[in-house]
Every structure is written in C-alpha cells, then in structure tokens.
Amino acid sequence: MLDLLWLLLPIAAATGWWSGRRSTRGSDKSRPCPALPGDYVKGLNYLLNEQPDKALELFVRVVEVDSDTVETYLLLGSLFRRRGEVDRAIRIHQNLIARPHLEGQHRATALLELGKDYTRAGLLDRAEGLYKELLSTRYLKGEACYELQKIYEQEKDWLEAIRSAEAYQSTSGDSQQSVIAHYWCEAAEQQRQAGRPRLASDYAKRALVRDPGCARASILLGDIALAGRDSAQAVKHYARVAEQDPDFLPVVLPKLRASYAGLGDQSGLSKLLSRFRGRKHDSETILQVIRDLLERGEEPAAREALIEEIGKQVAPVRLLREYVALEQTRFEGEAAASLRLVERVLGEHLQQWFAYRCNHCGFRAKNLFWQCPSCHQWGTIKPYDSPDDNLSGGRYV
C-alpha cells in the first residue's frame, strides 16, 4: 500500500496542477483544457524505472505551488522521510519554503516538516532553529514546542526540556506534569553525579511539586539522604513510595533495610515489613520479611511464611530458591548436596530473569529505566514479578 501511494503521489500532484489550470479556464468554453505537461510524464517514467532523483528534479522544477498542490508536496516530503530518504524530503520542503507567495499556514507546515527532516538526519541545531522560528509566528506553536521538547530530551538539556514542556502544556492543554517531574529528576541526577547533593535534592523536591505521586523523586531523595548518612530522612522518603506507587516496593525495600540498619531500629523495620506484606504479595516484599525473621532467629516462622507464600503465588523462582536454601540447613550429605544443586540452577535461571517491564509497550529489562528505551514513554517501566513467565522463559523484547 505504501509503494502504491508512492506512485500515486506524483499523479496527484499532476492532477492538482491540471485541475487548477482547468478551473482558471472553465468560464471560457471555447478554449481546450490543457494537457498534462510532458515533464510529469517523464517524472513518472523515472519513478517506474527506479530513478527517483531524476523524478524529484523534474517535480521540484516544474511544480506550481498553490493551495491546490502544496498539500500533495507536503505529503510527498513526509513520505520520503518515512522511507528514510531524508535528503529528498529536505529538498522538497526547502523548495516549498523558498516560494515567495506561499501562504503563512503552508509555510509554517513546511517549516515544521523541514525541522522533522533535520531531526531525523541528526541535525538538531538546524531543527531547533526552525522550531524557534515557528514560535515567532502565529501558526503551529504547540507542535513546535513539542518538537523542541523532544530535541532537548535527546540532548539531555533538562532545564530547556522543562521550559518547552511547560510551553507545550500551556499551548495545547495536554498535561505534561508527570513528564516534567521526570525531567526534574533527570536534572537532579545530573547534579548528584556532579557532587552537588543539595541542588540535586532541591530539583527532586521540585519534581514532587509537579507530581506528588512521583515515586522516582522519593526514591532519589532517599538515596541522597542515605548517601549523606541521614538514615531518618531516608526512611521517611522511601516509606512514602508505598503510598505513591506500591509497585516500586521491591526497589525500596532493600534501601529501607539499610536505612533502618543505620538507625539501629530492627523493630521499626519489622513493623513496616509486616504492613507491606499485608498489602502487596511480590517476591521482594516476602523475601525481606523472611530475612527479617531469620535475623531475629525465627527460622520456623520464616519457613512457614515461605511455604504459605509459595502456595499463593504458584512457586515464583525467587521464593523457591530461598526455600531451597533454607531447607539445606535441615539435611546433610547427598540430600544437602542435591538441594545445593537445585539452588544453583535456580540462581542461574534468575541471572537471565527480566525483572522490569514497560506497561505501555511490553519491553522487558534486567535493570530499571525511567524512560522506556523502546516506546520512550516516561514512568511506564515497573518491577515485574510474574511466576508464569519466570518459570517458562516468557516473551522478552
């Protein structure tokens, strides 16, 4: 279908030209309608003979750009870009912009399309200049802000991305609050890596102002506090994640354990784990409960809790490995050796386990990404704990 459209576009352009000519002479019945120019026929022959450069040369040279034909040529340029032939798309859009009598709306559309051509070609500075030029007109400002936002994302210029996202939100009415919160978190990460934890903390708090439900900002604030040996503040930030998004409990539970260890408050950790266990049944939560029981010397209770959860969750691999490791203490000789072998096999399987999945496109990964590498959505990747897929291998992207 795409190839058919590719062949029909020049015909549509020629038809538009012919219809325009015909309409100007429609009132004069004595004058014959003009025939299609020979150059269009030549252009079609070039396309059919797989000589698109020669065809493009003819179409660009003979086209009469007006309200009847400009949409066709914009579509032609867009099709070139989608086919990966960016140089040809650039040529068409540059030719349209160069026309002195092109009306404002069409010129703005050509500028926008040319900016997309440059972005596709990796010429981000040129694309940025075109989008900023669009902002000085009364056309397509929202689209220009959105494209600038994406450019600054690529360049990791998060403060400029925030400004563009705010402008896009104001122009289009499309909420960008969650995305802006992630931008503030990205800026905070930059400052943290640069050795400026105070500024990083300030940026992370701005993320929470934008999106009070941003679990990432709370995790980041907890990490900054824990690195600064402020265990009390770390506990405060990590514990807030349970209210913001319980799906991220597997991420913060090991951090909470370290924070409570810094406070020397084993009872506080036990109470928190007990509360979490009642709200969410994922492997990490249960594992932290089991480890807490073992640290307190309550091995029978740990074993009982494991058996109970394994029965509920159809034996997820992580809990099975923990159970096998615990059972080794009850056996000796060949039985213990067999259990060690089973534990090792389960551990090797977990090495291949994709622990995170994008809820938007299904992308799976071993590490947490805040922006999906596949669909580029923000905040859609979350911890993933499916017993069926972990045992069978699942469908990984």
UniProtKB/TrEMBL annotation:
HAMAP family: LPS_assembly_LapB
Record GO cellular component, one term: cytoplasmic side of plasma membrane
GO molecular function: iron ion binding
UniProt-annotated location(s): Cell inner membrane
Function (record text): Modulates cellular lipopolysaccharide (LPS) levels by regulating LpxC, which is involved in lipid A biosynthesis. May act by modulating the proteolytic activity of FtsH towards LpxC. May also coordinate assembly of proteins involved in LPS synthesis at the plasma membrane.
Cytoplasmic face residues: 21-397
Record-level GO BP terms: lipopolysaccharide metabolic process; regulation of lipid biosynthetic process
Annotated family: Belongs to the LapB family.
NCBIfam families in the record: PRK11788.1-5
Pfam families found in the cross-reference section: TPR_16 (PF13432), TPR_7 (PF13176), Zn_ribbon_LapB (PF18073)
Superkingdom of origin organism: Bacteria
LapB rubredoxin metal binding domain residues: 356-383
Protein name per its UniProtKB record: Lipopolysaccharide assembly protein B
InterPro entries per UniProt: CellSynth/LPSAsmb/PSIAsmb, LapB, Rubredoxin_2, TPR-like_helical_dom_sf, TPR_rpt
